[in-house]
Structure prediction request, 208 residues.
Amino acid sequence: MNLYSFLLFIVKYIVYIFNGKPYVVGQENLSKDVAIIASTHRHWLDPIILAMVVEPTEIAFMAKDTLFKNKIFRYLLPKLNVFPVKREKPSPKSLRRGVEVMNEENKHLGIFPTGSRYSTEVKGGTAFIQRLSKKDIVPIALQPPMNAKEFFFRKKAKVAIGEPISFDDSKKYTREELKQIDLAIAEAFDKLDKQLDPDYEYIPSKKD
Prediction:
């Protein structure tokens, strides 16, 4: 058992004890084939919830490169399948790493297309990685407990897994086609949120 599996085993049961098992719909849309997991991002728990939902397949995440300035994180995060990326302008090396995770290591690639918890706008990039990797994109909407009170009073995390946005060999993946795919991800997030709760609204907090 590697460090990723060991820590996920522990964290999963802590979540189960204090918050309960996440409510998940659309599990059938997550096949055994590795994919690009494109998810909403609303709480620091989101990567943990996603890792729980997609197991036994491991998931690797892109994370902002500034986290890796800390020596402890720089040592620990790669062992947890986390690798750095510049949010504003991902480097070719980061993109190649994302493709390698799926095509060579057989892991899902976790991406938060909004870039952070402080935005709801889907930014470009996810579709471009699909073009490079030739993998399907699976959109996922998360409605996590937003604070300690909600967590410990067992307001369960809700998860909706959407139908895959399939890689299309017939497409040239032009700039306009890439934009359309990113737009489809945003539309999927809205649809999945309403599927979980028609009245749900996420208002990002201001960045500290």
About this structure: The chain has one domain: 22-196.
